[in-house]
Amino acid sequence: MARARSRPSIFVDADVIFAGAAAPSEYGASHVILRMGEITLVDCIASEQVVTEVERNLADKLPDKLPEFHLLVKRSLRIVGDPHPNDLASYRGQADRKDLPILVAAVREGCRYLLTFNVRHFKPPSDVIRVLRPGEFLSVIRSLLSTLDASG
Asked: What domain range is 51 assigned to?
C-alpha cells in the first residue's frame, strides 16, 4: 500500500495574509491560498511576528476586517514561534534585516515555499526554499494539477 504524502508546507508572509483578510472577493490569490489551508490542501504556516504585524496593520488601516482576519488565522494557519536571534546569523544576507526572522522560521519549519508580495526582500538559495508571489504559487499548483491523468 502506498504511503500517504503529507500536505505541502507553505510559509505565508504578512502582506499575503493582509491581502487575504482585506480582499473584496474570495477569488484573489491570497484569499484562495488561505482557503487552501483551511480545507487542508496545504499547511499554511505563519510566525508570531507575521500574525502580530497583520493584526497591527489591519487595526490601523481596516479595523472592520479584523474579524475576518481572526477567523482566517483560526481556520487556515498554523502559527509557529519566532526564531531565536542566535538562529539568524547563518542566514544573514539571504533576506532584508527585518525579514530575516521570517525566512529563518520558514526554513526551520521545512517549508518549500515562502509566499510574499515582497520577493525582492528575500534571496535564499532556490534549493532551500522558493520565494513566490501568491499568483505565481497558484500557477505552480495549476501546472501540477494539469499533469493529473483525467481518465483515472
From this structure: 14-143
40 part of a folded domain: yes
Q: Note whether residue 76 is domain-resident.
A: yes
> How many Å apart are CA 72 and CA 38, to the nearest integer?
8
**Averaged pLDDT for residues 28-34:** 96
What is the chain written as a DSSP string? -PPPPPPPEEEE-HHHHHHHHH-SSTTSHHHHHHHHHHTTSSEEEEEHHHHHHHHHHHHHH-GGGHHHHHHHHHHHEEEEPPPPGGGSGGGTTSB-GGGHHHHHHHHHTT-SEEE-S-GGGB---TTT-EEE-HHHHHHHHHHHHHTS-TT-
Q: How many domains does the chain have?
A: 1
How distant, in Å, are the alpha carbons of 12, 31, 55 from that of 109?
12, 22, 22
Claim: this prediction has a pTM higher than 0.85: yes
